[in-house]
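User: What would this chain look like folded?
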Amino acid sequence: MGEERRRQTERLKEIARKLGFCEVGVAAAEPLEQEFVRYAEWLKRGYQATMAYMEREPWRRADVRTLLPTARSVVVVAYNYYNPARHEPFEQEPWRYGKLSRYAWGDDYHDVLRPKLQRLAEELAHLCPGAESRYYVDTGPVLEKAWAVRAGIGWQGKHSNIISRRYGSWLFLGVIVTSADLEPDSPLRDFCGTCTACVQACPTGAIVEPYVVDARRCLSYWTIETKPDMEIPEAIAQRMEGWIFGCDICQEVCPWNRFQKPTADPAFAPRYGQTCLELDAVLQMSPEEFRQRFRASPLTRPRYAGLQRTVRTWKRVVSAKLVDSHADGAP
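Assistant: Here's the prediction, encoded as structure tokens.
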């Protein structure tokens, strides 16, 4: 029985890699006791801000058997999205452009990963006849990062992202909860050590302590998750540093990303070769032009009005900085 379980597990991992997943691991479907305590404390502090979906039935995140009563294993996969392009237009003309987070340069990762996870779940059903499975790509009450740690994908860095020793932190995660009895992997230890580069680099102080992010201070939250009628607080706006969708600073400074590798998936290449957006072009877009330009892209998340709100904010801030620099006699 043990040999058959090992064979099924190894075969599933082979299939996952052929589907393009760079990391794959397995954990036993046991309650996330300590992990859930930390999550509940995070909610208690209000660090979820206005993201009410994170508060909805939080107890379901403590045990995957609330999602699938027959669950025995949790399969976790990671997908590399790193692209080595830079924000060159912004670097040359920051008053004219705004930066996009690397994960948003190409297609929506939900659309890319979901069919791959479905295929992997189907293959699992063939390997383990009668197995039931549910799969999730950041869409259900699942603590994906906690399961990634348990499955040995990597460890959760002080910026809260999962870090792989082989690929760094530019990873999307997918989870399959299954009744199949698979051989679990061992978790990795935390290799962050005494490094606090991400904590120190965050321009808004959103990493309030190692491993803990307060969304209320986070540029990604304000530029992606907030409703269009919410004005970005001035204390945040003054520290945007050109980010108009998301923020990659905590990952860019992470020493473990010296192991980053370019993704082989063209879906995450910059659309139209753009890693930045021209501010005036965004403000002049019609709603229909917005829908066409960003169809099946993460940039639809803040919606037309939300993206324009953020662009107006950055344009105001950078324009004021230009005026101040000229007043100080800068060339």
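The first helix runs from residue 2 to 18. If you want, I can go into more detail on any region.
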